[in-house]
Amino acid sequence: MEQMDKITNDSRHTFKNVLLETGFEYDGDEVVKTKTALFCVETEGSKIKAITPNDPHKDAIDAKGRLMLPAFKDMHAHLDKMLFGLPWQAVSPNRKTVRDQIAYEQKMIPEWLKTSVERAEKLIDFLQSNGTHYIRSHFNVDPTSGFDSLKHLERALKNKEKTVGAELVAFPQHGVFYTDTAPLMKEVVKMNIDFIGGVDPYSIDGSIEKPMDLLTQLAIDHNKGIDLHLHERGESGIKTIEYLINKAKENPGLRGKTFVSHAFALAHLSQPETEHIAARLAEAGVGIVSSVPFGNTIMPIPLLRKHGVEVLIGNDNIQDHWNTFGPGHMLQKARLIAGLYGYSSEWALSRTLAFATRYVLPLDDKGNQQWPKAGNDADLVFVEASCSAEVVARVSPVKSLVHKGHIVF
Questions:
Q1: Can you say how many angstroms the Cα of residue 85 is from the centroid of all Cα atoms in its chain?
Q2: What span, in angstroms and rounded, lies between the C-alpha atoms of 343 and 360?
Q3: Measured CA distances, 346 to 198, 326, 356, 365 (Å)
Q4: Is residue 2's pLDDT more than 70?
Q5: Residues 220, 226: Cα–Cα separation, whole Å
Q6: What pLDDT was estimated at residue 393?
Q7: What is the four-CA torsion angle of 263, 268, 271, 273, rounded to 10 degrees?
Q8: Which run of H or E residues covers position 228?
Q9: Which pairs count as long-range contacts for 346-350, CB under 8 Å and 24+ apart, including other chains?
């Protein structure tokens, strides 16, 4: 949009020729089409002020018939630690274990920190270009970087505060006790962060209970959430998940604020075992965060959702030393989910968009319009597509992004 080519401090905007979804068209019980119509959308401050009938002659920003959707949320990223912005480097096949990667990070972090602020900003720009306006970012806490990863990330986010939102997870990538990070975790939890993280307690620290007792108690004492990286499969992985379920049931303050990222152990259970633990996760209010792996590990996302487990989606690695292929694009993640689990109908594709927006959808399951409404946050994307189903299936181009009423592009 020609009039949306730069960030603006104007607190009021009116958009005309905005395409919005209004309902489903049915053939019997089957949804065969998504109905749409053009509207004017007014924003004031960080909120949507009004949705009114379209007036193509109105003095307003012309959306040119593009579809308006809720802006996207990346719920697992590492803005502080990646190779984005550095010369191209693929993943090394010589680093085969998490401990191999820890040793490599201990060597490289001092060099990476020299440019981490500007590269974090570049990565934020890249995510925004694909329609993401909100990011849950982990940041390293370890004896090598101390609190510098957090300080640098905070600087980058401060520079971008008008155009991006974030929540931060203190992440002891090098283990809690394996590298004597416990004292740092006891300090960082007092800072302006949202979650306490952890990583593979049994394989890195040699115990499930010792690191998890510390991390969960810190979260409880300081009113933080928990987001644990858990790559471990088999018995140790399941026991760690069960540990968090039990802690969340014992401490209601953790309900809805406790997440297991990756949780690969869930992908290697029998159907009855998966059903059982999914029901327990839902009962305890413990969510799963996934980057949607495929190949030998296919996460049981449909089954988790069937039981009411909150499943959040993120890109995780975006060209870093762990993974070469992160797309940095939530629509690509949504299309991957649709392909993996067979969500190919108009209705199913439209529902799959929820994984990119953290469950904010224009239409409810019956086709009733539920977004946008006056009073909703003005977090918007404009895409070149006819409906949500097409957006997911074709990864439609994002033409504009609005965050809290601020036009990003």
A1: 21
A2: 18
A3: 39, 27, 17, 12
A4: no
A5: 9
A6: 98
A7: -60
A8: strand 225-230
A9: 346/24, 346/31, 346/32, 346/33, 346/34, 346/387, 346/389, 347/24, 347/30, 347/31, 347/389, 349/388, 349/389, 349/390, 349/392, 349/393, 350/31, 350/34, 350/387, 350/388, 350/389, 350/392
Every domain of the chain and the residues it spans = 12-65+362-407, 74-328
Which residues are CB-neighbours of 283 under 8 A, at least 6 positions away? 249
pLDDT tens-digit readout, 201-237? 999 999 999 999 999 999 999 999 999 999 999 999 9
Task: Give CATH for domain 12-65+362-407.
Answer: 2.30.40.10
Q: Return the structure tokens found at 275.
A: 């059903």
For the chain, helix, strand, coil in percent to 5 are 35, 25, 40
d(CA 52, CA 42): 8
Average pLDDT over residues 167-190: 97
- Please give the full DSSP string across 243-255, using - where no structure is assigned: HHHHHHHH-GGGT
Contact of 317 with 78, CB cutoff 8 Å: yes
Q: What is the DSSP string of 167-188?
A: EEEEE-TT-STTTT-HHHHHHH
- Distance, in Å, from the CA atom of 336 to the CA atom of 126, rounded to the nearest integer, reads 20
Cα-trace Rg, the chain: 22
Do the beta carbons of residue 388 and residue 69 sit within 8 Å? Answer: yes
* CATH placement of domain 74-328: 3.20.20.140
**Helices marked H in 191-329:** 201-205, 209-222, 234-250, 271-284, 301-306
Q: Would you say 174 and 181 are in contact if contact means Cβ atoms under 8 Å apart?
A: yes
Task: Write down the residue that tokens 């209601």 correspond to.
Answer: 252
State the Cα–Cα distance between residues 216 and 222, nearest whole angstrom. Answer: 10
Omega within 30 of 0 (cis) for the link into 172:
no
Tokens representing 215? 């991390």
114-155 per-position pLDDT tens digit: 999 999 999 999 999 999 999 999 999 999 999 999 999 999
pTM of the model: 0.95
User: Contact 394/67 with Cβ under 8 angstroms?
Assistant: no
Q: Is 263 left (phi over 0), alpha (psi -120 to 50) or beta?
A: left
- The pLDDT tens digits of the residues spanning 182-195 come to 999 999 999 999 99
How far is 274 from 356, CA to CA, in rounded Å?
24
CB atoms within 10 A of CB 28: 5
